[in-house]
Amino acid sequence: MTIGRAGLARRSGTRWALVVLAVSGLLTGACGTGPGSAPGGGAPAATPAPSVSPATSPAVSPTVSAGSLVAGRYQPLWPFADEEQVRDWQESYRSGGHQPWHLDAEQTALSFTQGFLGFKGVDQVVERTVSGAHARVSVGIRGEGGGRPGIAAVIHLVRFGTGTDAPWEVVGTDDTTFSLTTPRYGALVASPVKVGGRITGVDESIRVRVRGTGSTGPLGERCCVSAGGDDAPWSATVTFRAAPGRTLTIVASTGGHVAEVERFTVTGVRVAP
Questions:
Q1: d(CA 175, CA 153)
Q2: Distances from the Cα of 230 to the Cαs of 27, 177, 198, 208, 234, in angstroms?
Q3: What are 1-28's pLDDT values in tens digits?
Q4: Straight-line distance from the first to the last Cα atom of the chain, in angstroms, rounded to the nearest whole number
């Protein structure tokens, strides 16, 4: 996913101006106690790693109220759907220490990847950075022959709610060689939805799934889309079933050379009324 930008073009000698506003949906991409949640006692252990610099962030969504967004601007993808669920967890944590992994960005990122998305082979924290209320966690696959793990995605997380025990929430991914830019981040969508982005690689086979917290499986799926090249475009159309107003995570993944999933990207959207 990429952040939005606004550009203003003026032509001298004329009396009019054209305003162009381009908003693109970034990553890298739901809540609570569905199949994507870690077990009650904890989440997969995170592997310490050196930090990386923050990359791009999702743009402010014009389609939903600030009360349903994380920090007033990000789509709540996982593990909490809204601040009410955050407050419920905080009460249980303060009274009994319930699910302390919500306070760990690395464990939350791995739980999102392995539990919610179902990418069991992506089990490494390769790099991470935490800056205030934002965290970027690079998750990846084990390196061949014990080498350095390969990065599958950089997951962007933001503290959700208030208080010193505000938990981490996945809000997207920061994309480089594999991106998901259509539909734009925070867009209202209907089924079927056209998805797409850009990819650098050879002989890639892309799988697209639509997911929502609390569902036992994908709400829609398309496989497999052939694409490849140097910053080449890719696109697909996916049919899904979801209630109006629901926040959805669209995830595109590719792999098959070293592991089943070697790269993935997510974006967050909402179902149109």
A1: 7
A2: 20, 9, 9, 20, 12
A3: 433 333 333 333 333 333 223 333 333 3
A4: 24
Element (H, E) at 111: helix 105-111
Rounded to 5 degrees, φ, ψ at 102 are -65, -20
Length of the chain: 273
Encode pLDDT of 219-266 as tens digits. Answer: 999 999 999 889 999 999 999 999 999 999 999 999 988 899 999 999
Q: What is the DSSP string of 7-39?
A: EEEE-TT-S-EEEEEE---------TTSTTSPP
Percent of the chain as helix, strand, coil, to the nearest 5? 15, 40, 50
Q: Do the beta carbons of residue 210 and residue 77 sit within 8 Å? A: no
Structure tokens at 256: 């098959």
Per-residue pLDDT tens for 143-175? 777 778 899 999 999 999 999 999 999 999 999
Instruction: Tell me which residue of 65, 111, 113 sits closest to 265, measured CA to CA.
Output: 113
